[in-house]
Amino acid sequence: MMKKSKIEVDWTVPDFVKAFQSDASLKFLNNFVDEQPKDLFGITNRKFSLVNQIHSNKVIQIYKNDHHFTCDGVFTYEPNVIVAVKTADCIPVLLSNKQGSFVAAIHCGWRGLSAGIIHETLKKIKTNSDDVIAWIGPGISQQYFETDRDVFDFFNKKYNFLTKHFIYKNNKFYTDLVGITASLLKYHGVQKIFGNSISQNYCTFSDGFLFSHRQNKTPFRLISMAWINA
């Protein structure tokens, strides 16, 4: 698997579908939603808003860059409208398709994943999942994601086939959040998957050029975003 100090969104999509993954060289505060840092404007040449994330399965379609939404999945069919999520251990997922007719960004924490955020996003987009192309961004790896039994129970109740992504040791469950994300994408029909654990291998906790809230309670976040350039 590829591992570089700068992460590229290495999916295979039409050239007019653009995407960007930040690293620790760009320091975005967790609480910014409406005021976009100048660094991102230099990358996209567009001002845009971020959604307020709440670890839910709520998904919203957006039609313009200036919006004020609370959700954990966002998608658009509109050209030049940017979808984005912020993370610092949770898993970011970007979606498009071979036609480049939409882009989506999903914030995948364990609560959102267990509540069905991936399924809700694909259902709202209303596209053939065989055509969907996914990119999994940087998140915490299993050896550093120590959880209590409640996390295991949440997944076991709704998606018991995901129990293979847990290791029980010293009265704790070590959870493979990246593996769960990839398995849920496949479970819901997405077969073209790129990025973390597949074509790349990154861990927010151990890779010093990324941000990890679990490691040091950082106020900074990584940004994963995509748009249809027109």
UniProtKB/TrEMBL annotation:
Recorded superkingdom: Bacteria
What the entry lists under InterPro entries is as follows: Cu_polyphenol_OxRdtase, Cu_polyphenol_OxRdtase_sf, Cytotoxic_necrot_fac-like_cat
Listed A to Z, the keywords are: Hydrolase, Metal-binding, Transferase, Zinc
Q: Which family does it belong to?
A: Belongs to the purine nucleoside phosphorylase YfiH/LACC1 family.
What is a GO molecular function of this protein? copper ion binding
The protein here is known as Purine nucleoside phosphorylase
Q: Provide the reaction this enzyme catalyses.
A: inosine + phosphate = alpha-D-ribose 1-phosphate + hypoxanthine; S-methyl-5'-thioadenosine + phosphate = 5-(methylsulfanyl)-alpha-D-ribose 1-phosphate + adenine; adenosine + phosphate = alpha-D-ribose 1-phosphate + adenine; adenosine + H2O + H(+) = inosine + NH4(+)
Q: Tell me if Secreted is a UniProt keyword of this record.
A: no
